Amino acid sequence: MHIVGILGRRLLQIAATVLVVAVLVFGLMRLLPGDAALVLLGERASDEAIARMRDQLGVNQPILAQFWDFLLRMVTLRFGDSVTLRVPVSSLIAERLPVTLLLTGMAAVLALLIAVPLAFWSAVRRGSWVDAAIRVFAQVSVSMPVFYIGLVLLITLAAGLRWFPVGGIGTGFLEDLYYLFLPALTLALSLSAILLRNLRESLIEVLDAEYVGFATAKGLPRGLVLRRHVLRNAWVSTVTLLGLHIGSLVGGAVITETVFAIPGIGRLMIDSIFSRDYAVVQGLTVVLAVLVSVVFLALDAVQAALDPRVGT
Amino acid sequence: MKRRDLLLASLLPTMAAFAAPARAAPHRGGTLIFARAMDSLFLDPVHTAQNADIWISLNLYDTLLQPSADGKGLQPGLAAEHSVSEDGKILTFRLRPDLKFADGSPITVRDVKWSLDRARSKEEGGEFAFLLSAIGSIETQGEDTVIINMAQSDPAILQALATFNAGVVPEKLLMAAAGDTLLEKSKSFAEKPVGSGPFVVESWRRNSEMVLKRNPYYWKEADDGQKLPYLDAIRFVIIPDDATRILKLKAGEVDVTEFVPYARVAELRNTPGITMTLFPAAQVHYFTMNNRPTLKDGTKNPLADQRVRQALNYATNKEALIQVVTHGVAKPARSYMPIATPMAYDGGPLYPYDLAKAKALLAEAGYPNGGFEVTCMALAGNADDAAKLQTLQQMWSQVGVKLKIEQLESATRLARFNATDFQMRTSLWTNDLNDPKQITSIFAYYPARQSNRTGWNDPRVNELFEQSEHEMDSEKRTAMYKEIQQRYYEAAPIIFGMDVPYPIAMSSKVHDFVQIPLGNNIFINAYKDA
Questions:
Q1: pTM of the full predicted structure?
Q2: In the list A110, B42, B147, B471, which could disulfide-bond A188, CB 3.0-4.6 Å?
Q3: What CATH superfamily is the domain B283-499?
Q4: Do B411 and A268 lie within an 8 Å CB cutoff?
């Protein structure tokens, strides 16, 4: 199929996905009891003040009118103002998104940096004590809750040894990298365990395959065999798995950002859901849906490059 | 340091707030880093409704009168002098000379009049306009005199003029801000406001960090004749997680941490280099009950019977609650008002634990062995709520009452509460005004909010409250409030709980930071050793 056609089809898929997500979020938010007027004014507000605020916020309008308004905003990318923070949603997202992207990006890279060498080591030395130790590490990492790993790292490496700051972010890119290292590691650990286990299985499978035995028998150097035949074939499923977990990485960022006091979109999302700040939740969800779809698209491309058998 | 010395050291800053400290001269300059659990939402004093906004507002906007450091009395603010006519109908304020806003422009009597007129207006005045509603008109005289004519006398008016929403705002700057309506202008102004207080906003990244720098034009001077405040800047960092805030303090990355969980108070008291302070607070924890005969879903409500409510109060061991929830730092309630409220009537702890009385009252009400169920709404994920209700569950099982806990998140709980669709809930109240009128209008005066949604309605209390609103004789007003509090106690529309302090942990380098009982964080005298 022609490349433009493929791309066009994929973009349409993304648009449809985003629309479905947007409608779902609109509906779910309206199903939640409570509204922003109550949250904003608190328990002491009089009934008439609440009614006045509901008018101001437009939550008194019929649901269809609200939905139409919402659709118009989505199409024109005007997300409106946050009712609690009283600033445009777009500027909030623009301020927060880079931090979260950096955090999840670092986490993905760290996860690969941990998982790939360990998986190799463990697959090549299958059955040895090294293999056993690595598998225990994976088991522990995957079963510990993110907030717990975060607190343990904070207490030991930051508050205890003072190697890292206790949360927050820096004032520049390099400092950000330093501040975000622990939270990224927190996020990376459980993902790395998942990747590790999967990659180890694939590696073992490939190592046992006849063509690898054949390549070795041909007298190819071990390193070349591992790189060209084993890794290349085992890689495909790991990249797929990484892609599938991008979503959960963003989910994990919500918790990590709270524990490490990072002003990213994860924390913004949680705060906005609790304060029924519809505009922010909707805007964020749409942006995240677009982002995740784009990541999937990019991963498909990477996969196709890695393995010509993967069709588009 | 010995343990006793540490305890003493932790009390010092509080005491210093009341007496002039005989210490080395405070260090000038430096930035105080303050870890907050929650960020402010909006910095226009008139549209301020949340504690996170209220508690820092007085640092940005000065008032004619200020709360004193112990929070009980008043001290002069922008007005050097004031007088009240004998009938309480005319209040005259004389401003200090050469007052300036943080941008260096003069604070005029016109700004004062405009700010107060906006704050008391029903349309533009926001949630707290009612505090100033007894004002009839405001006029200015010459360069320095503001005259407030009261439409009705109001015994709480001076306290109201020391409250955040009466903060003085620069009329010209606010009116010059972008927007068509006053509300829109207020919104643009509040992005980076300029006020009359000792500090001014330098930068603000929402939910992340807010930097206040000292206002070089602020009028107040220290004992040595130099200008206050001592600090060059305050940096608020927002850290929602309790454990992380404390770790930051321990690592020396922040100087002050608010909302220390009670469970950590003892530990921090014994941490070298950290001063753990419990500031007295006008704050109560209690349980709200629905007093209506039937609940929203149509079922019969045993809590409608006064004897049942009294019985449950007797069956509640406050001392045990205080131990479990606050590790002993709170005090059993003596009124529905925080005991720090003026005119709070202290007749000893209410409903001391007495199982025999509880059982007798239940039997009298037709529930000899309890045998009914009460459902209480709790804030999901809140450790305090969980501890309170699990303790209550055990205590009430002794009289055969089964307590069911319903976990809800905040917005849902609030919606159910406002719709009176509840039987019982955990509650917390902090005074915003240093007077009994605010809490009483909400808790006990039915016409305002059905006595805080309980549905309890005592015509005599309503009448007394209405009278007290215009009673200028302090003794008579105190007597009225005593009767209101006694009737409230007798009827027990709530489960009385405890008076709880504000736990603040600070680096030992920080001195003279004060949180007054109303919760306001006062930084004017705060300083940090070099």
A1: 0.86
A2: A110
A3: Dipeptide-binding Protein; Domain 3 (3.10.105.10)
A4: no
Order across the sheet with B135-141: list the strands: B79-84, B90-95, B145-150, B135-141
Q: Which residues are within 8 A (CB) of A171 and not within 5 positions of it... i.e. 6 or more apart?
A: none
- For residue range B91-103, list pLDDT tens digits in order: 999 999 999 999 9
What is each CA distance from A77 to A44, A273, A283, in whole angstroms? 36, 20, 9
Residue B178 at interface with chain A, using a CB cutoff of 8 Å: no
Closest CA to A283 of A90, A86, A71, A36: A90
Chain B neighbors of A261, CB-CB under 8 A: 237-241, 244, 248
Residue A213 in contact with residue A180, Cβ under 8 Å? Answer: no
- The CA distance from B437 to the nearest CA of chain A, in Å, is 13
Of A92, A166, A276, the CB nearest to B251: A166
Listed in sequence order, the residues at least 6 apart from A223 whose beta carbon sits closer than 8 Å to its beta carbon are none
Amino acid at B484: I
Residues of chain A that touch chain B, judged by Cβ-Cβ distance less than 8 Å: 32-35, 38-47, 49-50, 84-87, 92, 95, 151, 154-155, 158-159, 162, 165-169, 258-261, 263, 267-268, 271, 274-276
Residue A217 CB neighbours (<10 A): 9
CATH code that applies to domain B4-278+502-528: 3.40.190.10
Query: Which of the residues A91, A166, A179 would you substitute to probe the B interface, choosing the one with the greatest number of B C-beta atoms within 10 Å?
Result: A166
User: Which residues in chain A are closer than 8 Å to B410, comparing Cβ atoms?
Assistant: 34, 39, 274
Q: What is the pLDDT of residue B30?
A: 96
Question: So what's the ipTM on this one?
Answer: 0.79
Q: What is the pLDDT of residue A311?
A: 53
Q: What is the mean pLDDT of residues B373-383?
A: 91
- Tens digit of each residue's pLDDT (9 = 90 or more) over B360-373: 999 999 999 999 99
Confidence of residue A173 (pLDDT cuts 50, 70, 90): confident
Residues of A in contact with B417 (CB under 8 A): 43
Long-range contacts of B152-156 (CB under 8 A, 24+ apart): B152/B469, B152/B470, B153/B87, B153/B88, B153/B89, B153/B470, B153/B472, B154/B88, B154/B469, B154/B470, B155/B88, B155/B435, B155/B437, B155/B468, B155/B469, B155/B470, B155/B471, B155/B472, B155/B474, B155/B477, B156/B131, B156/B433, B156/B435, B156/B437
Residue A90 Cα, gap to closest chain B Cα (Å): 14
CB B78 within 8 A of CB B64: yes
Domain boundaries, chain B: 4-278+502-528, 283-499
Residue B171 pLDDT? 97
When mean pLDDT is compared across A164-178, B201-215, B313-327, the lowest value belongs to A164-178
